[in-house]
Amino acid sequence: MNPSIPGPYLDPDYPPGRASRGGDGFRSTSRTRRHLAAAAVVALATVLASAALTVLVLRSRSAPWPPPDWLFAACDVGQGDALALAVGPAAAVVVDTGPDPAKADRCLASLGVRKVPLLVLTHFHADHVDGVPGVLHGRTVTEIETTDDPDPPRGAAEVASWAHAAEVPTTQAAAGEHREYGALSWNVLWPDAAADRNPDLTRPKPKPKSDSKHSHRPRTSSHGGEEGSGPNNASVVLYVHIATRDGPIRLLLTGDIEPPAQHAVLAAHPDLAADVLKVPHHGSAYQDPDLFAVVHPRVAVISVGAGNTYGHPAARTVDLASGAGARVFRTDRDGQIVVAGTALHLRVATRRDTH
Ligand SMILES: [Zn+2]
C-alpha cells in the first residue's frame, strides 16, 4: 500500500482545542501556549540557526517543567523508548513505555500527564512494553494500539494481560491509518501487511532530494540484521504533524525499524521530510543512511540507556544524523528531552534531574 499523506495539516481551529476536531472520541481542551518567560532560562540558552528556522536549546533546572507549550517528549527511561505527544491539558498520546514501570510513571507525572487517549506500542520487546503498568498507574488510558506481529510472545501476552486487567481495548496499527487529536495528527506508515518486510536492499529506490553527503546506498546485506530483527522490523512507524500558528511541525517516530523496514518505508514515501526524527533502534549502527538524508531532520532524538551493553548509539549513526543537519539529543546524556514552540521557533529543552 502507498497511503497518501494529507496535508498541509494546518488546523483551521488553531490554537488547538478551542474547537477541537477531536478524532476518535477524544476532545482536547485549550492548551496553554505561554512562552517561557524566565530570564534565567534565556541566559542559559544557545541559538542554532538553520536557514530561517531556529532551534533554541534550553538546559536548565530552574525553568518551569515542562515548558508550558511542550509538544513532544522523550523520557529518560534507560535503555528503551518512552515518548509522549501532548494533546491537551494533562493529556498525551504515549508511544512506548520503556522497560521500567516506575520510570515511565515518573516521566509522565513530570509532564503532568493524567490522561492517555492512546498508548501506541511499536513492538513487543521488553524495552518498549515492560513499562506499561507504569503508564496505566493512576491514569485514564482509553486505548492501546500495537503492531500486528505478536513477537516476542511473552511481551505480547503481557500486554494483553495488562490491557485486559485495566479494561483497556486494544487495536492493531496498519499502514494507511490516519488519526487526529486536536492539533495533532498522524499517518501510520508501517507495518504494511501487504509489503515485503525483508526486501532486497540492493534494489534501487528513488534518489533522495536532499543534498546531504550521506545519500549513498546502504552498505548492509539484503538479509542481515541483529538479534530481534523480526520484531524490530514490525515496529509501528508514525508520521506525526502538529499544527502550530506558523506551520506544521513534522515528527517521524520509528520504533526500532532496521534497514529492511526503513527501505520499504522510504520506497513508499520518497519525500519523507521531518523536523524531528526519533532515531530508529536507540541509535544502533544498523541504519539505512538514506533515511537520514531523506528525512533531513532539524532535531534527532536518540533514546538510549547510559552504559548499555549494545554499543548504542553507534558513533556512525550519530554522525549520520548530524551530517544530515540535525542537532542530536540523547537521553543518556541529556536526560528528558522536550520539543516545544512552533514551526518557526522550535525549542528543545532538556532536563536531567527528573528522577
Ligand atoms: Zn528497543
TrEMBL record:
Transmembrane domains' residue ranges: 36-58
Taxonomy, superkingdom: Bacteria
Region (Disordered), start-end ranges: 1-28, 195-233
Keywords, comma-separated and alphabetical: Membrane, Transmembrane, Transmembrane helix
Cited Pfam families: Lactamase_B
Domain Metallo-beta-lactamase: 78-286
Residue ranges the record marks as coiled coil: none
Composition-biased stretches (Basic and acidic residues): 195-213
Protein name: Metallo-beta-lactamase domain-containing protein
Annotated organism of origin: Catenulispora yoronensis
Taxonomic path: Bacteria, Bacillati, Actinomycetota, Actinomycetes, Catenulisporales
